[in-house]
Amino acid sequence: MWRVGVGAIVQSAPSDEELLLRLQRGEPAALDLLVRRYERELFGYLCRYLNDDELAEDVFQNTFLQVFLKIDQYEPGRAARPWLYAIATHQAIDALRRLQRRRDRAGLWEERMGDDEAAVCGWDLVAADETDGPLDLLERAEQRTLVRQAVANLPPLLRSVVLLVYFQGLKYHEAAEVLGIPIGTVKSRLHAALKKLLEACSAFDAPRHSAQQPADPLRVPWPRPRSAAAASSPL
């Protein structure tokens, strides 16, 4: 697609959908463009979903291998982003199942669940103010760690909707398409997930504030659903 610039005609970047159609027509360069375009966004999602950056890298590569192998299944006019996320999510679920089977056979599954280094992709969910002092920065770091651990401890069905909606910026109907569930189920799972997250933070804050005032779980700065543009930027 071409557009007129100031004093020149320049070529505008093709949409994700156009790249998928080009790949269908046998243009492998379109896949390279898609990989570069989604490298940070989709890899970040997989890293949070899997809590393992090496496994996330493998799943990311497998995702675009599946895109190449299943490109004939892409329907023209279908939104590309939810389609890509659906493939990535299915690949992540399969990877976790394979990993669990291997861990079970080796008797090491409990070891992985207790590994403090499992959450290798930290989320900078609480932006630090330039005027914050050392104690403020320490409290914010504790809150980031708390949120990361709380989300990682959610059941997979709840964690997936939180990651897609609150961290990747997908709309409810897009998350529903990715997960293959009704929009109402997305909303109910989000409600259940946030309830568990607030309970986790309330339990964390209670000992620290018992001598002062009852803990207020809403003081924890939970991320709001992000726009698609913001979701593609690093956290």
From TrEMBL:
<dbReference type="InterPro" id="IPR013249">
    <property type="entry name" value="RNA_pol_sigma70_r4_t2"/>
</dbReference>
<dbReference type="GO" id="GO:0016987">
    <property type="term" value="F:sigma factor activity"/>
</dbReference>
<dbReference type="InterPro" id="IPR036388">
    <property type="entry name" value="WH-like_DNA-bd_sf"/>
</dbReference>
<keyword id="KW-0731">Sigma factor</keyword>
<dbReference type="GO" id="GO:0003677">
    <property type="term" value="F:DNA binding"/>
</dbReference>
<comment type="similarity">
    <text>Belongs to the sigma-70 factor family. ECF subfamily.</text>
</comment>
<protein>
    <submittedName>
        <fullName>Sigma-70 family RNA polymerase sigma factor</fullName>
    </submittedName>
</protein>
<dbReference type="InterPro" id="IPR039425">
    <property type="entry name" value="RNA_pol_sigma-70-like"/>
</dbReference>
<dbReference type="Pfam" id="PF08281">
    <property type="entry name" value="Sigma70_r4_2"/>
</dbReference>
<dbReference type="InterPro" id="IPR013325">
    <property type="entry name" value="RNA_pol_sigma_r2"/>
</dbReference>
<keyword id="KW-0804">Transcription</keyword>
<dbReference type="InterPro" id="IPR013324">
    <property type="entry name" value="RNA_pol_sigma_r3/r4-like"/>
</dbReference>
<feature type="region of interest" description="Disordered">
    <location>
        <begin position="208"/>
        <end position="235"/>
    </location>
</feature>
<keyword id="KW-0805">Transcription regulation</keyword>
<feature type="domain" description="RNA polymerase sigma factor 70 region 4 type 2">
    <location>
        <begin position="146"/>
        <end position="197"/>
    </location>
</feature>
<dbReference type="GO" id="GO:0006352">
    <property type="term" value="P:DNA-templated transcription initiation"/>
</dbReference>
<dbReference type="InterPro" id="IPR007627">
    <property type="entry name" value="RNA_pol_sigma70_r2"/>
</dbReference>
<feature type="compositionally biased region" description="Low complexity">
    <location>
        <begin position="225"/>
        <end position="235"/>
    </location>
</feature>
<dbReference type="Pfam" id="PF04542">
    <property type="entry name" value="Sigma70_r2"/>
</dbReference>
<feature type="domain" description="RNA polymerase sigma-70 region 2">
    <location>
        <begin position="34"/>
        <end position="102"/>
    </location>
</feature>
<dbReference type="InterPro" id="IPR014284">
    <property type="entry name" value="RNA_pol_sigma-70_dom"/>
</dbReference>
